[in-house]
């Protein structure tokens, strides 16, 4: 039986309408910031950025952008590709990138599968997926992004010896991810003791989804897998 799901792995794309000023800002900035998957695939992703970067990280589903922006600010020589189909979240990040003139971020506002299939093989130094939509009802589990096919995609674009990081406060999704990565030959869980998966990564900024989980009594789990 396959995990393949033909359809989107995210929910709604639009919430409250953007203000006219923010709409214009996004329209003006996105041609410069957004990746064009219709263009030839670059041999070296570092050339995608306005900054001189040495390596490239990928965050799929950046939500409010807290983690993406924090990492980009603290690592100016690393390029960050952020994926988020939700219009409001994308607008928030674009506004901050423009206001702070952050030069080491590029964005993609559609299905992450398209981007993963476009990226060159072994081109990403680190990949994050943090607090993704858990699709908590069992009949919706097929819509969870972590599955055999998407792990194949992550494995293809990640450099061997580099990491895929996943965080969630939903126990069934944590178990789901552990099982799928355990069964995938390209990934190895790096945890040596319980604190390894109960403790966020260094300089963790937190996210609004994590804060919501804590308020509601749930605890985040932080999984690190090595691309072997």
Automatic annotation (TrEMBL):
Catalyzes the formation of N(7)-methylguanine at position 46 (m7G46) in tRNA. S-adenosyl-L-methionine binds at residues 59, 84, 111, 133. Pathway: tRNA modification; N(7)-methylguanine-tRNA biosynthesis. PANTHER family: 3-DEOXY-D-MANNO-OCTULOSONIC-ACID TRANSFERASE/TRNA GUANINE-N 7 - -METHYLTRANSFERASE (PTHR23417), PENTACOTRIPEPTIDE-REPEAT REGION OF PRORP DOMAIN-CONTAINING PROTEIN (PTHR23417:SF14). This is tRNA (guanine-N(7)-)-methyltransferase. PROSITE patterns: SAM_MT_TRMB. Keywords: Methyltransferase, S-adenosyl-L-methionine, Transferase, tRNA processing. Belongs to the class I-like SAM-binding methyltransferase superfamily. TrmB family. It comes from Roseibium polysiphoniae. It catalyses: guanosine(46) in tRNA + S-adenosyl-L-methionine = N(7)-methylguanosine(46) in tRNA + S-adenosyl-L-homocysteine. GO terms for molecular function: tRNA (guanine(46)-N7)-methyltransferase activity.
């Amino acid at each position: 039986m396959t995990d393949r799901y033909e359809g989107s792995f995210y929910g709604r794309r639009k919430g409250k309408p953007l203000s006219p000023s923010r709409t214009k800002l996004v329209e003006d900035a996105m041609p410069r910031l957004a990746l064009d998957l219709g263009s030839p695939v670059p041999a070296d992703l570092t050339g995608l950025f306005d900054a001189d970067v040495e390596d490239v990280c990928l965050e799929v589903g950046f939500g409010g952008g807290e983690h993406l922006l924090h990492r980009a600010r603290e690592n100016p020589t690393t390029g960050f590709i952020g994926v988020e189909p939700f219009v409001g979240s994308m607008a928030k990040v674009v506004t901050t990138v423009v206001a702070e003139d952050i030069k080491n971020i590029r964005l993609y506002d559609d299905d992450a599968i398209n981007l993963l299939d476009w990226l060159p093989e072994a081109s990403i130094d680190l990949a994050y997926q943090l607090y993704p939509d858990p699709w908590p009802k069992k009949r919706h589990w097929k819509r969870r992004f972590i599955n055999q096919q998407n792990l194949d995609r992550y494995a293809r674009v990640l450099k061997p010896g580099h990491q895929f990081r996943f965080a969630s406060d939903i126990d069934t999704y944590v178990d789901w991810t552990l099982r799928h990565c355990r069964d995938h030959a390209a990934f190895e869980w790096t945890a040596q003791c319980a604190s390894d998966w109960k403790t966020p990564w260094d300089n963790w900024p937190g996210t609004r989804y994590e804060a919501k989980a804590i308020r509601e009594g749930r605890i985040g789990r932080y999984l690190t897998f090595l691309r072997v």
